[in-house]
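User: Okay, second chain of the day. Same drill as before: sequence in, C-alpha cells out.
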Amino acid sequence: MPRVLLLECSPNDLASPGGQLAREMARRIHPKAEVIVRNLVREPLPPICADYAGAVVGHADRADEHFVLSEQLIGELERSHYLIISTPMHNYMVPAALKLWLDYVVRIRRTFEIHNGQRVGLLEDRPTFVVLSSGGHYLGAKAKQMDFLSPYLRHVLGIIGLHHVEYLHLQGLADGEEAVNAALQQARERLSFNPVFAPEPFPDVQL
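Assistant: Same drill. C-alpha cells below.
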C-alpha cells in the first residue's frame, strides 16, 4: 500500500484549514494508504546543536550518534511514496518548525552531494504537495505581500531530489469564515482534476 508522509506545521493544529485539507488529501490518495503524521508544532524538533554540526563538518558516518534524529526524519521521507506539507506562511517565509525539519533532512553526503559546484539530490523523486495557508493575499489582484516561501521551498526540496512539487494556495484566511470556505472550495476543485486524488466530495478525515 502507498505510504504518505504528512508534515503539519501550523500552531492552530486541528483547527487549521490547511491542515484539514492536507489530511483529506492524505486519505484520498488511497483508501488504505499508510499515513505517517509528523506534527512539527505539537512535537517540536530540538535545535541543531554543535555536536551535530561537528559531525556534518567532520564527515561522520551516518551511524554516528549525533545523526540519530536526522536519520529518523530522512528515513520517514525515504519510505514515503508521497509527501504532503501543510504550512502557514510566517513573515513571508516558512515557519521555524518547518525550517528545522529541513535543516535535519537536507544533509550533505546523505540527501545531496556536490559535483562540479552543483548540488545533486540523492533521494528518489516523489509527488510532493504543499498546502500553503496565509491570512493575507500574496498572489493575484489582491496581493499585498511578498511570497518568499514558495520559491525557497521548491528550491530546497529540489536540492535533495524532490522536483515534483505542487502548491495549493489558501489565501485571505483572515477575512473570515466565508473566505476560508471559498479558499478550501477552490483548492478542492483544483484537486479534482489531479489524477493522484479521487473526485470530490472529500470526506471528513480524522487522523
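The beta strands are 3-8, 34-39, 82-88, 112-115, 118-121, 128-133, 165-170.

User: Thanks, on to the next one.
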